[in-house]
Amino acid sequence: MTAAGMLLLLIALSSSIRQSRVFPEEVQQYRLLVEHYARKEGIRNCTDDLLAIMTVESGGRLEDLMQSSESLGLAPDTLDSESSIAQGCSYYASLLKRGKKHHVDEKTVFQAYNYGPGYITYVEKNGGVHSRELAERFAERESGGKKKTYSNPLAVEANGGWRYAYGNMFYAELVDAILKERRKEKEPGMMAEMLILLTAAAEFFLAGTALFRTGSRMSLRIAGIVPADLKRKGIPELLRARGFISGAAALLLIYGLWLSYSPAEFCGAVLLADCSCGIYEGLTGRPSAFLLRGLLPLLAFLAVLSGSGS
Predict the structure, then answer these.
(1) CA distances (Å), origin 171, targets 38, 45, 108, 178
(2) Are 147 and 163 in contact (CB under 8 A)?
(3) CATH number of the structural domain 16-183
(4) First-to-final CA distance of the chain
(5) H helices present in 224-294, as ranges
(6) Fewest Cβ atoms nearer than 10 Å: which of 50, 56, 215, 255?
(7) Residue from 245, 307, 255, 251 nearest 276 by CA
């Protein structure tokens, strides 16, 4: 296999890191569109929240994907798919802003997407933290006590299978359950985490060797430079450049593992670039260059790949 072919294969494999198994395919297919409108509303980091809401609202199977027509004062199921996403993102952004102003928790905002913004004020006046009890009391008041059958397992376990005929008093719990699974999915897993840390340590070692031991046999071996190359100009500069690249890769891996919003996706991208460089050097130069610089990042990448979505 050529270096280019190997790189294309890794890129194709890396796309699966981004494919969530928590959200149905019918919902996942709209991720990029949701990201686009979430970015326009300044809430791109809430993309998963919005996909979880879509999952509860329609499962991606209705035209009005986010059931957001009524938030514009329109009849239910009026908006087309893209308009529904655009309005759903706008509506959720307004609820987040209102929730922040009234100092309520995240689950209150989830429930308010279903109940309307009045629920945020209601929760603020009753302690500021959403609970099933508060959601039930609010729905009882708004429905006049009228009940309807609801066969969702949450309801069956809680009360035998009913809810008040106003919104869905279990809504925030349904959204939150999906997001909990998504958060687990985005963690790289213990084995992948260990390999990422080992890769970062190795990159720091390579950086130090290249930057501070530019004439040693080890630094030359790591860089894939044979003794005959020493007569060429620019070898120290080449080593320093590779040292800076290794150092940057190590820092990015540490950042991705502990500080990024999505560790598996972030570290997977860094590892892909890192092992691709090692594979390219191994296939176009000395095979030992891959063993020295590409094998560990490749193993870590494959561990992230196998753990993502599991």
Answers:
(1) 21, 21, 10, 11
(2) yes
(3) 1.10.530.10
(4) 29
(5) 235-258, 263-284, 287-293
(6) 215
(7) 245
Q: How confident is the model at residue 309 (pLDDT cuts 50, 70, 90)?
A: very low
CA trace torsion 80, 82, 85, 86 (10° rounding): -110
C-alpha–C-alpha distance, residues 9 and 111, integer Å: 43
Q: Where are the domains of the chain?
A: 16-183, 187-307
Q: Which residues pair with 147 in a beta bridge?
A: 164
- pLDDT for the residue 281: 67
Question: Over the stretch 250-278, which tens digit does the pLDDT of each residue have?
Answer: 888 888 888 776 787 788 888 888 877 77
Helices (H), the chain: 3-14, 25-28, 31-40, 47-57, 81-101, 106-115, 118-124, 132-143, 153-159, 171-186, 190-212, 217-223, 235-258, 263-284, 287-293, 295-307
- Using alpha carbons, list the distances in angstroms from residue 43 to 150, 182, 287, 294: 32, 18, 46, 37
**Structure-token pair, residue 169:** 């008093």
Residues 144-197: pLDDT tens digits? 999 999 999 999 999 999 999 999 999 999 999 999 988 877 777 778 888 888
